[in-house]
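the two lines:
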Amino acid sequence: MSDTTHEEHHDGPHASGMWRWLTTTNHKDIGTLYLVFSLIMFLVGGTMALIIRTELFQPGLQLVDPHFFNQMTTMHALVMIFGALMPAFVGLANWQIPLMVGAPDMALPRMNNWSFWILPPAFLLLLGTLFMPGGAPAGGWTLYPPLILQTGDAFPFVVFSLHMLGASSILGAINIIVTITNMRAPGMGFMKMPLFVWTWLITAYLLIGAMPVLAGAITMLLTDRYFDTSFFLAAGGGDPVMFQHIFWFFGHPEVYILILPAFGIISQVIPTFSRKPLFGYVSMVIATSAIAFLSYVVWAHHMFTVGMPAAGMLFFMITTMFIAVPTGVKIFNWLATMWRGSISFETPMLFAVAFVILFTIGGFSGLMLALVPADIEYHDTYFVVAHFHYVLVPGAIFGVIAGVYYWLPKWTGHMYNETLGKWHFWLSTIFVNILFFPQHFLGLASMPRRIPDYSVQFTEFNMISTVGAFGFGLSQLLFVWMLVKCVKGGEKASTEVWDDPEGLEWTVPSPAPYHTFETAPKV
Amino acid sequence: MKPARRKGGNRRLVLTLGGAVAGMFAFAFLLTPMYEVFCELTGLDSERLTRATRPAGSAVAAEIDENRTVTVEFLTNTMNPAAWEFQPGDLSIEVTPGRTAETVFYAENLLPHDVISVTRPSVRPLEAVSHVSKQVCFCFEEQAFAAGERRELPMRFTIDSELPAHVETLTLAYTLFTAEPGIGGS
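prediction for all of em together
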């Protein structure tokens, strides 16, 4: 439409200052916006986690009142999931997918701008609830009724902000699917796509299947509270357990939305630093699809204690354990890729190797939780907290960090400071284990989650965990410093950056020019 | 220069995906009736079944099994203990299958104004659900209570003789809610 008036010979942004960022339709600009936004939210959510851990440093009520503590656990989860992790992955997708498939930009650039700029107002609403009468939501991020319906004035704001976040991710997902389907360079068949692109394609389909279901569930909560419906109110013939079913029908695919793109990043990083092509490309694609499919038929394993016939528990237990098969395929493929490779341990590779090991620990505790008889004991204890933090922190977040170190020289044109990177890696890895490993023991000893106080026998492990939390949190400031330094300057990065890496993104100069692949490359 | 060749393809794909999003949103709402049907088919919804057996009366399964008795326990809950006092008259009774049994519950409105209550029943174990039929129950309809009123709520039910032999104890549970008028009609 604007083609006729479009400036044909410009190389850089069409505007400057704030206006550039507000109106940009460039995938690299929008990728940067997403990544910066997610870093800010990571620090906000991290601060909330530190408040939680400080309160739990000693038994008894020390720092905050229990209601505020509950607000912190709820908001920490919402901010980290919807503010830090999902935007980080979308940011990486924006930067990398066009570069990796040889496209000049995302397929729907204006919608791309829109899907990012929905995020800041949504978080303004969500974080604003902290200052409302009755406080922020405090019933847990799973929003179970009837408890969540007792939220104060914040309730409609939470629901509306989640609607906006859902809309943002759905728009992003549509854009990614259209880009991957229609904009691949000539010669790049589906089975030639890099794995990061594959995992994102599947993730985008998961988003389209799952996010609208969440939107439906929270809409029902809204009408239950304000329009006299009784979807979940037992008094009116509804059933609160039904909310849990609908929520987890979204919630379980959501956890794979949070990990599949990380699988993709690891599948790019490990081959580069092992100097070998990825082992078992086809099986990786099939395994990812299998995980995505299975994620829709395991939801009730989050609800073993709410009451279910034995046949139902058996079904969900078995399907859950099936997920270990494709996941195991992936783990072994990564190991086989490294096997007899000429490995070097630059920072992205260190994070990738730590990902493989620590994610596997999280996977195994997941298998323990899948067992119905054991889960009834573990349910709502710190064992669950340890499990999902192992898959999300040294899992998903390490995946994002590995991706950022891996592609940062391509984005900025400068090499990051390798010494700083190594420090960041070792401190993060040591502290993340000090932080979360003791929580396994606390959970096995039945310390309940989401409670600001605990009995005295849990004190030592909680203290260790809190020390780890502060160590991990402060180490991330090194990451921020490294990022700032790398954007500002540093050793010039070559076009290839690494030692003969595979992929189209390494054929454009570093930093990647504002417009790339205006004529499609041949694959 | 623009990749216009795929414009039409983009539009079609966006519309398809948009349709999928709308479909999944509708699906979330469709889960509500599906959930009810599923619960009914599997017998998980004891409330619906105990209501459905209400008009059956005593005529159908009147065969009396004098050889055994079943312990029936009564359990009461209320979501708002500050507003309601709600107790069973008997904690448990022995019932002969096929013979009609009677018990009472007591409910008191602790609030200084009139309220309406609805009560949701539940039967455990699940395999016993279809063998319980209630002839009289306060759980069938809304109950109006004046300010501070205390009332006896009678309940009459039958357990049929087809009840599996290994079920020796049944629990009938009732949860009492304060209702908006009209919300709890059945």
